[in-house]
User: Fold this.
Amino acid sequence: MNLRPGVNRIAVQVYSPGHSYFAYVHRGACGLIGWLEVDGVAVLTTGSHWKTRRDWSWSDRVERVSIYGTAVEDRDLRLADDWLEADASGWEAARVVQGAKGAIWQDLRPRATALPVEEVRKLDAPWQARVGPAVTATSDPHDDLRKAFSTSSIGSAPALLPKGTQAIWIFDLGDSRACLGGVELTAAGGERLLVSYAEKLRDGELLLSDPETYCRMRPTDRITLRPGRQVVEGFTPRGARYLVFALEGGGVAAEPKFHVRLPMTPVLERPLPRLDPVLDGVAAMCRRTVLNCLQDGFVDGVWRESSLWLGDAVAQDWALRSISDDPRPLLFSIDMAAEGADAEGLLPSVLPGEIPAYAVTDYNFSWVELLAGCATHPGVVEPEAVWQRHWGTLTRMLERMALSRGADGLLRNPPGRRLFLDWSPMSRVEPNLTLNLRYLHALQLAAGMAERVWRTADWAAEGAALAAALQGHRGPDGWRESPDREAASQLALALLILTGVVDQAEAGALADRIVARSLDLRDEPMEGQPTLASPFMHHYLFLALHRLGRRAQVREIIAARWGRWVREGRPTTPENWSIDFPDGSACHGFSAHPLGWL
Assistant:
């Protein structure tokens, strides 16, 4: 903040519903710490001399938006006052839970990534308007909105909206963004306004998420209006392409003026390459996706507002580095993962917290790939310094992985963890070829880093032993995902090439199969062909083809598969080849990695 001459009043609004979610594991306490520095000297700090007051306009009985984000906001503006201008003399003294050196603040440090900037955009022409009877309010605003949609029909909202009716305005932002909807309007007092967020259409109709599906999404906030003209905004940005406002009639002319706040992390970009019309379209689509999925750090999809997945960062970093030298999102992911290591040394899958149901073994190996990637990042000046800083974490994690190798030398998944998180229907039966090849790739990268920093490690020898043990997955008619089970997937074939398990001649034959499957645009499983890798895992396919000097075929696959999305008019890259599953994201950062290959 910038101060003005004379007396300044500093006020901070804090909102915490007390819910754990992917980026925040609730510890039973919430609070605020702040300080003012002048020329490097702290001249003002928070403490008991600060005043505090509970804002009773915010309900403390709210549902989670989803497992990915914070809570539904339910607010009654009739109970609110102008806290920025209020007389605070009667407020309570702030309760000091812990001082600045206390345990809950021990990891506090300056922000590592760029501070987002915010655009405020007017919303003039709705994509659709609907009118219908008002719905009786329940404890679930999102369910109320779904009912309102089912009983309304397309039409223009009247200037004077009678009591007992409801108008719905839907605005299309053009692509999926982090956003916060707002409106200035007039109310009689007591009318309810629902503000909701959606990402895609189905059969031409807006798809409002069903909380019974796996992501449990209910991204609808509720505000009860006070009398008169007022500006209404929520507290928490959500992620969406479509903004929905549903207003109960109060018998007055609401005259709504809608707007949206669009936070975006600034990036100093290099220009995109000029290739051909199809690949130029792919590059623009991928660029838009990776920038929209860059917030405090990398997030997988914009509607999963705070889900910084460690594994996804491999592909997202590859895309971002192609247009920017800024290494901060990469280094942020590396550091956060190291800080979140558990008592056994295994790394979290979701940063900064850990969600046990989503503990993914191969994301530990993704972290090794991120470390090794510092050596080629245009903005990392001293990759060896990064490696040295995290050497203890790297060593401990790989030592823990070695304990999970069986008598046959192959890695088994540690109890309570997933092998890998991907939408491909490939086999997860153990001992799993793909999981062990990811492990082998990590050992090889770690051995290379050890050599560069003059560290003694057994990782090269461990990798050679693992490569020998993997020969048991080779059947008389080809490689198997698990011995005597289904044929190796497309991803496994790529990792066989990438790790050097197969010789040059066999690598060429496997590459031919990889290319043929990707260029066949049928997405469903096909007899006699390896299981198709998801868009994310195509990054490893491209690494393998690049290893063999087949850059032209990488571009051919990108033109065919990502070019199909361009031809369909998609502004951003989806989560999978089909996102018909309930909450499949239409803007997924890990699918934008072709930007780095173009």
User: Anything to note?
Assistant: The longest helix spans residues 433-452. The mean pLDDT is 92.
